[in-house]
Amino acid sequence: MKDIITLGIESSCDETSVAVVKNGREVLSNVINTQIAIHTQFGGVVPEIASRKHIENISDVTEAALKQAGITFDNVDVIACTYGPGLVGALLVGVSYAKALSYAIDRPLVGTNHIEGHIAANYITNTKLEPPFLCLVISGGHTHLVHIKDYKNYEVLGKTRDDAIGEAFDKVARVIGLGYPGGPKVDSLAKEGVPNIQLPKTRFENLDFSFSGIKTAVINLHHKTPDINKADLCASFEKTITEELLENTLEASKKIGVKKIALAGGVSANSYIRSSFENLKTKGFEIYYPELKLCTDNAAMIASAGYYNFINGNISDLTLNAVPNLKLG
What we know:
By secondary structure, the protein is α/β, with parallel strands linked by helices. The protein contains 10 helices and 10 strands. The strands form 2 sheets. A 5-stranded mixed β-sheet has the order 3-2-1-4-5, with helices on both faces.
């Protein structure tokens, strides 16, 4: 069987990334141009600035990815790009570039769901992982509990009703003065604290999540108690939010009869969350997560997801457009 080389393009938020992946699992290159330093001064991503930077960077990043992989456009079999969800201006840069490239070099185009990309990051790190499994997608913009029935057959079992988990981390970090990006900073400070502060958890009859209550509780505590121990507050926030993730995931596992669980998304890099899920191995669960560099937005995960779209016949045409609120499934 002929190897399939996929060129992946990711521009949904503030990372301009292009990758070359062979057969959906072997990364030949994965170049990421991050804008974190630019947006840090604003305390978060400024969409218009992100879009402009994508325009400036995408050609150079593509050239670097091809060079690192040791190939030319002649070796590319398919082009996969993120077309949603994400910031509409940022998405349009990647989609437009991918469409132009597809036309210029006469290669098939595959529009790829960003959330599918996060899930597919697990296929790169865990090359033997195959569906079915349960995936907890936790990132700056998304919180989904998904039953991966097959490579292209997903069932969303639960999702957040308000803030995404990464958004909650960022807002807590901003309020207590840690800055942006909040997730890594909260994780780091929590290691110095003790989870001794009672915080609320939200439970629904189904498997949905809610993080606005705990976020608001942390903010109110900080305002009302200026001398509160910030490390203890971070540790308590992290512990409580992880308990909510675990409770819903274990309930979903029992419901569908699957004990193979994967984590995905930027928040899956959190050390406390990882260790808490890792402990489930003692109870007979199989636990998977991407290596740290594949947790945040990158094009290798888009190339992997795009490959599975391609071999299943899901090919886009040149009318492909950005869909900022694209749903999974």
